[in-house]
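[09:14] KT: can someone run the structure on this one? pasting the chain below
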Amino acid sequence: MKFATGLIALAAATVMSPAMAADINLTTEEYKPFNYTDGDKIVGFGADQVFEVMNRAGLSYDVEMAQWSRAIGLAEKKADYCVFTASHTAERDPKFVWVEPLNVDRTLLMKKSGSDVNPSTIEDAKAFTVGTQSQDYTESLLKDQGFPKIDAAKNMETTLKKLDAGRIDLVAVSEAFYNSLKKDGKDVDIAVVLSETVLSMACNPGTNAGNVKKMQDALKSMIDDGTQAKILANYQ
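[09:31] RB: done, structure tokens below
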């Protein structure tokens, strides 16, 4: 099997014979600027790093773009599956083996521009309805911090529509995602900073340990030679 190049095509859905099975099965979601489709390719500061990691590690791979619940669910259940770009949280820590860091990111609560929703602290924000994406790390983060009114939609697109329509007051997102929205001209503003988190590849514990080491070593080499910094700069 030839190395994949980030092309979506139908490769991820192709039934392969055991002799042709990929070393690693990658799953991800549409979540700009981490990972997203651009024409017939998957790009983003997470995706670009992961594909470079795989190439440097000399590992063959398949990629599937899916809703987050499926993307992370496959990595939880199946050996040799890795999901990206995943936040390394305390809850997730024992469920995966980790290849990191792809980046360090803040998590924010954002509001619709012009809204009179103006919490000054995290405790103030708990009075409001907060939107998120089902099974995203932000849902667990909100629960852990005791938010009583959480609205978890199937995807971020639905959540943003709810914010725009006034059906929710705030949305929990990564700072990188927030910056992407602002760059695209979306009318959103920061309300409160929730936390900082390490962004990673999360692999099923049954994944070949030698391959995990190859991926981690490849990522370290990218950090050491400045490749990671260049990739991140491309998406600022």
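[09:33] KT: thanks! The beta strands are 24-28, 36-38, 41-43, 61-65, 81-87, 97-112, 130-133, 150-153, 170-174, 188-203.
[09:34] RB: yep, looked fine to me
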